[in-house]
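Q&A log
Question type: sequence-to-structure
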Amino acid sequence: MGLAYSGVTSGLRQTAWRALALCIGLLITAPASAEAPSAALVGKVNAAIDADTDRLVAVFKDLHQHPEIGFTETRTAAIVTRELKGLGFAVTTGIGKTLWFRADMDAIAVRESTGLAYAATKPQSLPDGRESEVMHACGHDAHITWLLGLAKAMVALKSAWTGTLVVYAQPAEELGLGAQAMIDDGLLTRGFPKPDFGLSSHTAPGPVGYVSNSAGVRMAGMDQLDISFTGLGGHGSAPELTIDPVVMAAQAVPSYQTIISRNVDPQSAAVLTVGAIQAGTGNNVIPQTAKLLINLRCFKPDVRALMIKRIDEVSRGVAIAAGVPEGKLPVRTMKGGAGPLINDPALVDTVNPALTALLGTDKVVNNFPAVMGSEDYQEVMDAARVPYVFLLIGVAPVDQFKAALAAGRSAPYSNHNPDFFVDLAAIPIGAKADTIAALSLLAK
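Response status: OK
Response body:
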């Protein structure tokens, strides 16, 4: 169960949230006096985060060592609760714009192989009794740490901004379900001041000290879906008496790929990945069912609609060819997703000068191409009908990044890889980047 804190009228206020929408929120309202991000303010941000770095690194290592799969982030939520509550700041109602800042909490089912002293080494016990290998292979532990750094710095720098800041921690981003779960649980109707704009950030395996922040489409839309084939089970020695769902699934997988190569316009980027095939339990048993777990990525709504339509047609065709009767044709189950992430140009133009003042002229990349990776952060902002900006913050050691480029690779490692890690030098830098971005958005 998560907690929300609001300071509109009575300081810290505790409200219960249902378990499937774990979140932590902190609302700060500053008096109506502010200064634009300047050399003096950059110095204050550096000083505030530098003084807090030891705490942030310790929190990060703890979060990394204890990852939690989506919708199970109870320990992580408790840490955020403790740290935010410990700030104990006084709150004064003011005027100005309202900014919502978000960080996601969940890890993924990957066994860590980084060899870090604070690596995740124990499987997580899930609510259904199963155990799963789990690690923070996408940097969400850094995101939460950056949120805590920003929250403390913004309290210390209240005289430098005006308006209202709401920070919240989101579950289950990796499932594509967390943002929508929070919306369904009333995130936008629980009494928080409505946002005027949003801010978030994400780790990227680029070099530490660099931030990418470009206008327009930055990440692809995403869908998670399952296709369930129903056949006729039987003995492995008598396949003629069965309708084999494993064969249907095996035929469907390469056929789906022709949707990308032969149906989607070659100039319209799209990805279709079958991430898992689930069928059977024995060597000599033809099972009754088989399920394919599919992930889609694209930038355009018409491409998404085409892919889903053709998946249905391919699945149906494979099943009919196998002799499946009409009443048992494949079933598609949509499990969640999000539209493309689109940075607001005006907000990018507001934030980038502040990032440049913090990091240096050559450290802010504003022409990085859109990626096929996806997010669900924007679902809250889209539901609130407000613009937002989303930063990509480099977390790879500079020497490793240079070596990767020299070897012809675009990065030393990738997100969701067992070797993914966040250089500890990125902990204070990410907190500073998020803080200076927030200050620029809440300046007079």
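Response note: Confidence is low (pLDDT under 50) at residues 1-25, 89-93.
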